Predict the structure of von Willebrand factor A domain-containing protein 5A.
Amino acid sequence: MVRPCGLLTRRKEPVPLKSISVTVSIREFVAGVSATLNYENKERAPVEAFFVFPMDEDSAVYSFEAVIDGKIIAAELQDKMKAHTSYENAISQGHQTFLLEEDMSSRDVFCCNVGNLYPGSKVALTLKYVQELPLESDGALRFVLPAVLNPRYHLSRWPANTCLQLSVITTISSQHGIEKVQSNCRLTPLEYLENDKTTAQISLDDGHKFDRDVQLLIYYSEVHIPSVAVEMGKLKTSPDCFMEEPTTMVSFYPNIPEAQPPITCGEFIFLMDRSGSMQCPMSKQDKSQLRIDAAKETLILLLKSLPVGCYFNVFGFGSSYESLFQDSVRYTQHTMEEAMKRINHMKADLGGTEILTPLNAIYGSPTIPGHPLQLFVFTDGEVTDTFSVIREVRSNSKRHRCFSFGIGEGASTSLIKGIARATGGTSEFINGKDRMQSKALLALKRSLQPVVEDFSLSWSLPVGLSAKVLSPEQSVIFRGQRLIIYAQLIGPMPPKEARGEVCLKYILQGESFENKVAFSLHPNPDTNFTIHRLAAKSLLQMKDMGFRETPANDKKEVLKISLECGVISSHTAFIAINKDLNKPVQGPLVRRDIPRPILLGAHATMPRYYGCVFGDNHLVQLISLQKADGSWDLNEGLALVLGLSVEDILAALPYKNLDSSGWATVLAVLWLHVYGKELQCEWDLLARKAMAWIHINVGCAMHQLMKAAVSLLKSTVDPKTITH
């Protein structure tokens, strides 16, 4: 389910958005963002408006202000209950006011009541936040500016082709050196500001239509080099103040090699969103694949890539849930065929998005000895109570890992990241042209790989100085995963030339490794206190379990950290009052609680698209024909994909007494390398399973068969690249 967003009236009607101005500062792995949205009330009557703004769950919002008809109204962060009382009092006295708070059920959506907007009033809302940037599988940093500012989900009365001015200026700096910047939007040429390519600037090209998220992929030269950033605190005025202690951000990105062979045990459960919105296309581009079709194709790829001997099950959820099997079943040809049959008939027909009930069913099932649970969750929306879901997943974190996927631009980052973080898994977001299949298979590969374990952090600091680690303990690191740790430096700071060192030690497959990095203890100060605020956000993510759910003993600490650092939490809110405006309130007074925005569920009108994912796609057809043990049978379906007849294929078999399955499997693997090369990341695991079958069942005849296959398919692929 998705929600309407932007600046709306009480009747969910939009207040026209005229322009957006965004400045982004990216330093190493962190982005600082200032976004200003300019609105105008063109109605003849005053309106009470509220602002709904979703952003990444890792974002630390630390500043919010409004400029109404030229008057700046700066906000103050307060205890939420006190802020609500202040808001009510200000409204009743005729003051213009606004209140910004986290949504009650999710920390990645913010709601702001802007009070009363008078006819002709112009409002500029400026929101500032900082966030860690996630890493892509190729090492790129990803920054996303949500198109919801436009807003992203159009209401029935919203003009579909609103003319909007958007400016985005991004400055990037990194000691690693900046290689390139890519985007899904047109950009101005990258301009280097230093000869060593450590600083650069780039802007969104003029004429951009803000009809999709703006995504930037930033590539650094040596991303695996560990780094430490130290930020000095504010001048000391009181004991035990979070913002007054120097704070560090340590970043490790180990270059972990891929292990061979992969793990072959496990219980793999795939939990798939089948709510009505899954009938929407993956992106706004013409002929984009439907989300439900991409999900079905992804499920087939995952099933074909599972190791022989594991256990599996598939759940579909919406307002209710269904499972393919009552309990997880052993992965065999029979169970795989049964699953395939039912997946092909799967539809987006289960209503809303309620995930807690199927999760309870999964966790309530008995464990399978020797087969650790690996849970894969796919959803395109949000749930009604994110905090409850995360708490349930966390309470079962010792028995499983969760790999989560947010589909499309409406997925809840709070849910997707929260459930992965709670179990030591990984999270991915699939937007625009991203392929769900590629990201899901990457996660499956990670789940089949050994992880970095038993890691420890040690510090070498001048006498009298110590490090107090603030980040929650992490149990594992996957291949391709980055580790960020925040720590406070306690004690007197040494002379300016002093340096420190931090060392990360870990064990991978029984072998010990260590990464060391030295750093200056006296860097240039940051007036925005970016690292302090991100460290505070890290603590809040661990302690703050929602306004209703946070334990009493943690609430006191959450309030203290939030108020000291100016970072919003579920227990605090920004309140601002314009006492210069004393016009009488128009109309009868009503309670000004921040409304939870309406959710567009299965009954919302969805555009209809046609086409089946399993039609003309030969790659999907070939994969769907593979057997559970990794082999293929020689039949009409395979012949159709190869573009040959069964008779011609049999005639080219060099060993007439050889079982035709061996010949068919060799041809299928070669076809993948010839015609599916661009999507190798998606079929790599199932091809490895096929090659393992070939080695066992074909043996020394493999090389002759591969040579004959190359001739039959008229391929230029070197057989040695496949067989080794």
Notes: Confidence is low (pLDDT under 50) at residues 149-162, 584-616. The chain has four domains: 6-225+563-578, 233-250+449-522, 267-447, 618-723.
